[in-house]
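Re: the multi-chain job from yesterday

Posting the exact lines I submitted so nobody has to dig through the queue logs.
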Amino acid sequence: MNSNTQRIVITAVLTALLIAVGPLAVNIGPIPMTLQTLIIALVASVSSTRVSLTAIGLYLLLGAFGLPVFAGFKGGFVLLAGPTAGYLWSFLLFAPIIGLSFKRWANVWGLIVTNILASVVNLTIGTIWLTISMQLPVEAGIAAGITPFILSSTLKITVVVIVALAVRQVQARTALAF
Amino acid sequence: MNNIMIGRFVPGNSWVHRLDPRTKMIVTFVYIIVMLWANNWQTYAWTAAFVVALVKLTDQPFKLYWDGLKPIFWLILFTVILQLLFTPGTPILFSVGPFQVTVPGILNAIYVMVRFVLIILMSTILTLTTPPTSIANALESLLSPFKKIGVPVAELALMLAIALRFVPLLMDEMQKIMNAQKSRGMSFSTGGPIKRAKAIIPLLIPLFIGALQRALDLANAMEVRGFKDAVQRTKYRILSYQKIDKVAFTALIGFVIIFFVIKTWLHG
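And the result, structure tokens for all chains:
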């Protein structure tokens, strides 16, 4: 078995998962919880840095050319340059950060810590860019970019860790890990 | 759900449909970059005229474009309100609590809205008239210079083509899993935030494991049929520029030149 073919196909299928699930949202109260961040963290949690970085990069590339793959079925180059672009670009960092827990710290704690770290980096970069590009005062930036997401981020990380552990168990049994 | 991805491409035989996908992508990209330099109503009017002309050329009902704008409506509104409230300047029209609505604020808000709408219209033209596989092919061709610095462009394009093919399959799969869970008494739309977030766990686990299993099957099937690597693949459809593409590029150059003429003339 040539592992090169497997790597290509698994990257493609993970990209497809990002495209299929990324635009969806779950109604959990006044603000719907988008699944975009969740699915990106999940893809990064069940594959190596190389595979997840490629998948996330392809996802952003498709979005840049206008395919409706981002949260809420949005797409377009404007989103990668607009006020919320920081959140999108920092998804690329999910691959190296969460990837640390794929081979080296491959246990529950590694998974939890890297996911929290990725989430913090995502919100920080997103908010800094939001604040700069909209020329907001710092407090307004934090109120718009961080506070509304604390509850949903915690929920997302919990879901990601539970699902990733289950998927990794199957990967370990069937040698599907890439 | 399916309709949203696939419904975006509408087959047709208009001028824009017949353009090479690479031409459309280059025009879209150059247009969006040029438009970021627009800074007064004359330049905005000129960029708007270009898009309206293109929309006319696609021969599609305007409703399709409106559908492309609708999902992004809230983001536009949010941006417009932020611009209204946080743009400093004079004269101040009135105050809302600690915020002041100013004349430059209103102008900024209108410009931001127009810019959003035009850029979305432009990318809708691209996706409405170009099938996803052509987009993947065009990307491969456009990114081929990056081969020289070691970017595996052929491999990335193959991944994109497989990914786009897998999306409808995964959406069907998701629907099946949801129905299976519902028939076992699962509810996806009741309960508090934690219960609803928990409800997606038994949806995602089988979705991921099923997808990885399919990937492995596909990898086996490809190898059995002699797949070695993406570089040595041959193509069913070979892209080539036609006369109509030259017309499009000429129009694009004209657009850019007139844009900057308007811009500098108004400043000089």
